[in-house]
């Protein structure tokens, strides 16, 4: 093979490989660096800086509060000062959030407890077995929670309702006591089951 043919062959190889590489990179998606605030499955763990697609960050991670954009710096960096500022910001936001959450929960518990103390008696009607005090349907924690919500506008979790007897439900006519625990406080409600 002549010298000229070899040179032409080399030039044609490099130009086609350059075209080939540019075609391969054309379909690759851009990515941005983000810092994860919480564990995200398939992306990374908390406080890790990862590369994600801009759409994922813009539409899913950032609105959900699971990631933050990494700040870009255009000058010399003082990593010690950055770390101190991050630590100080985390401490301030955590303390503020914990204090506000505690205060809000306490206010909600006090309001709910006051509402429950104003409700002393709840009445339910059930079908009765003939010649007996037993009912066909029982009164459960779900029934009690639904009645409190519908009649009095009080939202109580069903796991906080505790029946004094009969294994977590009322299966007979008459007057029964039920305890509702809100935070550290316990209030008692009288439940009356009547026949229909």
From TrEMBL:
It holds the Pfam family Ribosomal_L9_N. Keywords: Ribonucleoprotein, Ribosomal protein, RNA-binding, rRNA-binding. Gene3D superfamilies: Ribosomal protein L9, C-terminal domain, Ribosomal protein L9, N-terminal domain. Signal peptide: none annotated. One of its GO terms (biological process) is translation. It comes from the Eukaryota. GO terms for cellular component: ribonucleoprotein complex; ribosome. One of its GO terms (molecular function) is structural constituent of ribosome. Residues 109-193 form the Large ribosomal subunit protein bL9 C-terminal domain. Residues 32-70 form the Ribosomal protein L9 domain. InterPro entries: Ribosomal_bL9, Ribosomal_bL9/RNase_H1_N, Ribosomal_bL9_C, Ribosomal_bL9_C_sf, Ribosomal_bL9_N, Ribosomal_bL9_N_sf. Belongs to the bacterial ribosomal protein bL9 family. PANTHER family: 50S RIBOSOMAL PROTEIN L9 (PTHR21368). This is 50S ribosomal protein L9, chloroplastic. It comes from Absidia glauca.
């Amino acid at each position: 093979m002549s010298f000229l043919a070899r040179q032409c062959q080399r030039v044609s190889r490099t130009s086609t490989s350059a075209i080939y590489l540019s075609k391969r990179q054309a379909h690759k998606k851009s990515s941005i660096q983000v810092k994860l605030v919480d564990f995200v499955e398939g992306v990374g763990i908390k406080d890790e800086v990862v590369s994600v697609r801009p759409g994922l960050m813009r539409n899913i991670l950032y609105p959900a509060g699971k990631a933050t954009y990494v700040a870009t710096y255009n000058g010399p960096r003082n990593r010690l000062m950055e770390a101190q500022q991050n630590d100080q910001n985390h401490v301030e936001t955590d303390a503020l959030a914990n204090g506000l959450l505690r205060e809000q929960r306490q206010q909600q518990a006090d309001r709910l407890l006051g509402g429950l103390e104003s409700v002393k008696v709840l009445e339910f009607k059930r079908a009765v077995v003939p010649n007996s005090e037993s009912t066909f349907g029982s009164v459960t924690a779900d029934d009690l929670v639904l009645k409190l919500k519908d009649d009095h506008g009080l939202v109580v979790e069903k796991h906080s309702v505790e029946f004094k007897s009969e294994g977590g439900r009322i299966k007979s006519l008459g007057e029964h006591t039920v305890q509702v625990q809100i935070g550290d406080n316990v209030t008692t409600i009288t439940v009356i089951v009547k026949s229909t």
